[in-house]
Amino acid sequence: MGLEKGLEKLFEEDGEVEGFKGIADLQEGVPKEVSFTSTVTGEDNKFPNGEDGGWGTMTRHADGTVDVSYKGSLKKDKDQIVWRSHEMSKVEGGKLRGLEIVTGFSQRIIIMETEIDLHSNKFHNTAYEWK
């Protein structure tokens, strides 16, 4: 999507969404509870590596967009960072792609490019700090 310009890359995240059976599982206007687990790989000491997990709701709208709200925590060593986020996505070529704004990381505002493969439920996110 080209978010790299003017933003600092912080981490990449890979994981799997649970409780979601693809876009057909989302009925228009009906919130669907989902959860996920993932691994975060920090970028050049700008962000810690860790295990992430969370839960939230996905809602599909009449225009085809999917609205998602998440809460979760990133575990690194013995520390834990609690966060929350909001994502807007749309279906493109068998994938749910969108942007997510994440707060809770020490006054940082993080913007993520998100992508969920609708066949495997695996996802990949790239996170940037908005300065």
CATH-derived topology: Porin
Estimated share of beta-strand residues: over 45%
Task: Note the overall shape.
Answer: globular
**Which residues form runs of ≥5 with pLDDT under 50?**
none
The whole-number mean of residue pLDDT values reads 88
Strand order, sheet with most strands:
1-2-3-4-5-6-7-8
Q: Rg, please?
A: 14 Å
Q: Your description of this structure?
A:
The chain has an eight-stranded antiparallel barrel with strand order 1-2-3-4-5-6-7-8. It has strands at 8-18, 32-42, 50-60, 65-76, 79-92, 95-105, 108-117, 122-129. It is mainly β and 131 residues long. The protein is globular, with a radius of gyration of 14 Å. 0% of the residues lie in helices and 67% in strands. The protein starts with 7 loop residues before the first strand and ends with a strand.
